[in-house]
Amino acid sequence: MLDQAKQLREKMIAKKTDGADRKSIKKTRVLAITSGKGGVGKSNFALNFGLGLVENDKKVLIFDVDLGFANIDVLLGRIPKETIASMIEKDLAVRDIIEKGPKGLLFISGGNGFNELFQMDDHKLHKFFQELATLQGEVDYIILDTGAGLSYENLRFILAADDVILVTTPEPTSITDAYSVVKMVHGKDPNVHMKLVVNQCTNSKEGQRTADNFKQVAEQFLDKEIGALGSIPNDSHVPEAVKKQEPLMLAYPNSESALAIRQIASEFLQLRVPYKLGLKGFIMKIFFK
Ligand SMILES: Nc1ncnc2c1ncn2[C@@H]1O[C@H](COP(=O)(O)OP(=O)(O)OP(=O)(O)O)[C@@H](O)[C@H]1O
Ligand SMILES: [Mg+2]
């Protein structure tokens, strides 16, 4: 594994300095959407937030890395021709598995069997991440829809991403689980940039209150600043869109929840967070940790 990792690093450094890698001038940020508790609305948020960025002329790729229960394709009502699992199995290029979603949104499906990613042999893992690296400069954002909780794989995705959006609901169980994620991540790397989104709020006051409390606790006990990007109301249009297998932003573009997500996307785009290493940094980190 270490030998493979060393080779990959050397190849990447060589590529960076040979002058041919001009595409890397355009930066690709990797953004992980995660949560402590499951079922809080990560996948719906990832998809619709991605569309919110597309509305702002950003090129976005959603990468479904929920290793057990990948379902972005289901939310889009699409049956992907290829998945990460089949890419690895059939030795395909990453471009062969990118699907075109609505409004130019791109996505990659996990597919069954993707949960073996980190147990793959070194050669396959090396090949997979090398393929992924070719997307550098092709898109503005890669959004990772992760699984819930603190699995080994999730932690690696979170620690390697440029930005992390932590989704919680106002329920105490969801908040304490989100806090556990912050504590664990902060313990491993205090520089991870995390923002909170409060989903399924009864009203905006509840969202604000939840975010304020969370911020205060993280500051007091971890000396970690976690600002909120905003809150999303509990809105029956979300499950309605799921049933129609159409993204909320397209099925109900003027619903309260779609407006809130649009607002969160524009809030996110106004953040001036220093760019870490983007896609290549993500791959390096995920491979070496
Ligand atoms: N703002 C909202 N208002 C009402 N229902 C919502 C809202 N957001 C999400 N939901 C509902 O919550 C359920 C879970 O959503 P979703 O699958 O996006 O969660 P998740 O966090 O990705 O779950 P998992 O942890 O299993 O991956 C869905 O049935 C969805 O319709
Ligand atoms: Mg999900």
Automatic annotation (TrEMBL):
Pfam families from the UniProt entry: ParA (PF10609)
GO cellular component, one term: cytoplasmic side of plasma membrane
CDD domains (UniProt xref): FlhG-like
GO biological process entries: negative regulation of cell division
Assigned keywords, A-Z: ATP-binding, Nucleotide-binding
GO MF, any single term: ATP binding
Protein name in UniProt: Cobyrinic acid a,c-diamide synthase
Organism: Planococcus halocryophilus
